[in-house]
Every structure is written in structure tokens, then in C-alpha cells.
Amino acid sequence: MDIVAGIDIGGTKTKVGLVTKEGKCLKSTWFRTREYPDFEKYLDKLYATVKSLVNDYPEDLNVLGIGIGAPNASSRHGTIENASNLLWKGTVPILAKLQERISVPMKLMNDASAAALGEMLFGNAKGMKDFIVVTLGTGFGAGIVANGQLIDGYDGFAGELGHVDMTLGDGRLTGLGVRGGLEAYVSATGLKRTILFMMSKYMDESRFRSIAFNDLHGEDITKAAEEGDPIALKAFDYTADILGQALANFTAFSQPEAFFLLGGLIGSGKWITEPLKKYFNDYLLEVYKGKVKLMYSGMKGKTAAICGAAALIWEDHQ
Amino acid sequence: MDIVAGIDIGGTKTKVGLVTKEGKCLKSTWFRTREYPDFEKYLDKLYATVKSLVNDYPEDLNVLGIGIGAPNASSRHGTIENASNLLWKGTVPILAKLQERISVPMKLMNDASAAALGEMLFGNAKGMKDFIVVTLGTGFGAGIVANGQLIDGYDGFAGELGHVDMTLGDGRLTGLGVRGGLEAYVSATGLKRTILFMMSKYMDESRFRSIAFNDLHGEDITKAAEEGDPIALKAFDYTADILGQALANFTAFSQPEAFFLLGGLIGSGKWITEPLKKYFNDYLLEVYKGKVKLMYSGMKGKTAAICGAAALIWEDHQ
């Protein structure tokens, strides 16, 4: 059976899986990225993981290629550059290095762009030609498709929308030092920062007054909203407001038919999506109103990112 | 000789010309758009103008088609929708109506997108696959090319970047009522508004203290800057700051190889471009630094927009 290995490199976990033409993940596994600060050792581990997944599979598999999604990845150069969530600093030539170990077709792409390709091949964007996938996890990522093609940019770094400044230079700093950058507001981390901001601004009672920032988790904020915690509700409203405005701005750029939302922040469900719908529609220019859908990603579960990465190779076998 | 008629519909003037395959405008003319508030009469005038240009030309011409650039144009529907600078309200089906009068291939596009296509076929973007044309006139327009294709958007309204809000809802209103919209700052009109703002903020002596807003012209602001007028210098610096930030934000979207700048505001030359270069580089994310060029448009003179419109048809005859 033909198969593609999909690899999703995240700040915490590296996920590896075997994906069929239909986007089904037959088998997957993961290991901790941070246990391999030495990049050569990381590659050895990555190679060993793919190899054992394929060898241990009960059927004979023909590996068509390896698709890799990673933060700050340049599809053009096959490198990861200055990724703030990874331990390897500077420019890491991951494709060239991995090719030394396995000789199959390989492609590397920004993780959000890989998610967009996965959505188009296997998910809810089938048949769409203009859409944007927005990943709201530790950071803020975007994969943009226009005219049925992924927008890569001149150098492979398109879609770094988490570092768009929404405040004319008068706001929070992102991990990359961008003042007012979207990611500092609209991400799982941004939501936590907003909890602190709301407690500084208002004197409402809140369960978060007795929880330290480092002990704060996204799920707690969702739970607090369900219990009517006013700080949690204000934080979701504030986050949805800024996200709605950002999506309205992005609409003015490429006018997508739909946005697909995924990632930890979207796991909060209606607490974020209900106010988001309202704000998005408020901010949308008249000419776009009623034409842009806000949708959940069709790539569900823990293997979504693996399937997205595998789509990089499956795209060439359609 | 094969020829394409290019039409540029502006709030003030409608320009019509005959353009060769090489992008040379053989002959052109114009009439005042506002003299035809009745849309049918406007179309009659438009048809008569094209016809007489072709008939009066000393050689025999074979008209391959008509390309039209207009504000708020939907390439998909062949309509102009709610253009704030035009007298015809609602949705105007210009292509269908013009087809009733002349039966040749026709295409309609947002004026800034037409400018981008013109730049690619005839101007300074020859051979480039990822670039953005920014028009800074009465308003703020953008034509975006990625992967060698114009980004039209789902409904043909991509690139309305003048209505991107840069201030989290706390700024000036644009003509379309967008608070904090870029066009309210970065356009010929925006610069005039900034002159007032600077005189309200600072007490510097300035020639503009004795000139009313309605009597204020872009050229006067350039001249004042040349004479060292502190209000003019502050206004250019402020405008360049916001434009630099906006272009840095757009870079995060599609990572163009170059921005091409044109329009009245750019006519101010170094007073806007020198501070712009500095601010743009300051705001650019590390991963983009040194990779994005700021360039002047290669489409010069009064027929630039006509040639851009004609490029819509010439694109199909390359």
C-alpha cells in the first residue's frame, strides 16, 4: 500500500504518522522535541521513529515521501529559521540533513500552511479555492490559499499573521518582540495574558485571583466561563473582539470564502466563537458582509497536524 | 494592427486609450465622470468615446477587447458595487450593459488590481511572481500578485487594504466608515487630515495655519516640506510611519518580493519615501529583513491606468 509519512514538529511534541491517500492516519506516535537539543540527535530520533513505524506495520508499505510541518519553516529553502518555540537556534537545514538519512521525496512547510493543505485535501475546504486556516494554539498561525494555491511568498515565509501589529505600535510584545502583535492577544497564551489584564482593569471577584500565571491553563478559563466567572467572560469577549477585527482585516487582503479555525483557543467552543461571530460581522466591510464563513476545521483529533504534513506529498499524487 | 482599449473609471475622470501589445498607449482621451449621473448615458458616452478613438485612428485597428479598471469592481460579477467616489449607487452591472453596445471580449477589475497586472506585463514587475502594487491617491488601493497570479478573492473584492483597521478601533473614520482604516491616514486625503492633526497637536509656526482644509493641495505640502515647514515635515514623518507599519503587516501576509508605490502621495518623492524606508525596515519582522524591495511603479504618466486596464485583455494574448 502507498503511504506518506507526516511529521509535525511542535515546541513540545514531535508527532509522526503514516497517512493514506484518503487522509486516514493508520498509525502514529510522538516524542518530546525538547529532549533533543542537539539537532543531529533529533534527526537520528526522527529517522528511527519513521523507520520503526513503517517496519512494524503489519502490511507492506511503499513510502511515497515525507511531509513535514514546522514553525518558521521556509518551504523554498527547506530550513527552519529562528523558531522562537524550538531549541535549535539560527537556520536549521532540516530537509538536506534528513535526506542524508532517508532518500525519499520530502517537503517542508510552515505548520499552518500544511494545515491549510490538509484542510483542502482531506478536510472541510474540499473544492474551495480561497480560504484561510487560522491556528490558535501557543502561537497564532495562518495558512492562506488563493486561486486554489497555497500562498508561500517570495521566500516561503508568507502567513506570519501572528506578528501583524494591530495597535499602531502601542500594545503587548509577542515572543518575537513585535509590539501589538496579534499573537500576544489571540492565542492560548494571549488569553492567559488577557486574564491578568482584566484582573488589573476590573475588581470583579474571580477564581483566577488565587491562581498564578504559570499555573493557568486554557481549560480552566473555559470552565470558569461556564460557571459565569466575570473575568473569564470579559477575557473571551476581549479576545473575540480582537480576533474578529483581525479576520475582518485579513478578509480585505485576499477575500477568502471561509476561515477555518483550530487550535487550543478554539477548544473553548462557544465562549470564543459566539462573540467572535458578532464582532467579525461588525468589523467586516459592507462589501464582504454575508459572504465569508467562519468554520471549524474538519481535521480533528491528535493526528490532524500529521495529516496536514502528509498532504504536502499527497498533493503531488492526486 | 491588434489593439486593446483600456478604460480607467475614476471619481473625477474617465480615461480611455488604445494600447499595443508592448504596453504603448497610441492615443488617449478623457471625459468627466460626474457629468453622467445617469448610468445609461454614461455608457453611451463611453461607447462613443471608444468608437471615435478607433475610427479616427489613421491605421486600421483590430480591437481584441476592452479592459476596464474601476473602484470597487468585482471581476467575478462584472459589476461596480457601492463605490463611494462614484455617483451611481448600489450595484452597477457595467460589463453586461456595455456588452449590449459593443460585442468584444471585456474584463473588469478593481483599479489597483489592474495596475498590478499592468506592472507585471508592461512595468517594473516583469518576471516577478510575488509583489504588491499600492496606489496612494484620493484613496488607498492594493493589487496583490502571488504565485504569479492576481489575488481576486472569492467574490472578486480582494485587496481592499485601505479599510484595514490599524488602531484596534480607536482612530479616524474612512469614507466607508471604517474606524482606524489605513486610507484615513495613508493617502493624499489622509496627509491633509494629518496636517490638521499636527497643527492641533503642536504650536509650530506653519504656512498651513492660514490655509483652509478645502484649499489645501498635496503639492503645497511637498513645497512646504522643501521650505522646512515643521508641520509639513511632521505630517510626512507620521504618514510614513503608518505606511511603513502597514507594508510590514502586508509582508506578513503574502511576503512579496517588492512593493510598487504610485499615486499622488508618492509624487511627494523623498519627503515620503525616505522616512518610509526607515520605518518599513524598523517594523519588518526579522525573517523578512533585507528581502522586500520598495520600488517606484514603472507605469508612468497619465496613461498608466489605461495601460493597466488594457493588460486585463493583453494577459490572454501573451
**Shape type of chain A:** globular
Total count of strands of chain A? 13
CATH class of the largest domain in chain A: Alpha Beta
Percent of residues in β-strands of chain A: 15-25%
How far do the termini of chain A sit from each other? 16 Å
The structure class of chain A reads alpha/beta
Q: Number of helical runs of chain A?
A: 8
Helix percent of chain A reads: 25-40%
Oligomer: homodimer
CATH fold annotation of the largest domain in chain A: Nucleotidyltransferase, domain 5
> Looking at this structure, what is the CATH superfamily of the largest domain in chain A?
ATPase, nucleotide binding domain
Low-confidence stretches of chain A: none
What integer value in Å does the Rg of chain A equal? 20 Å
**Arithmetic mean of pLDDT of chain A:** 92
* Overall tally of structural domains of chain A: 2
CATH architecture of the largest domain in chain A, by name, is 2-Layer Sandwich
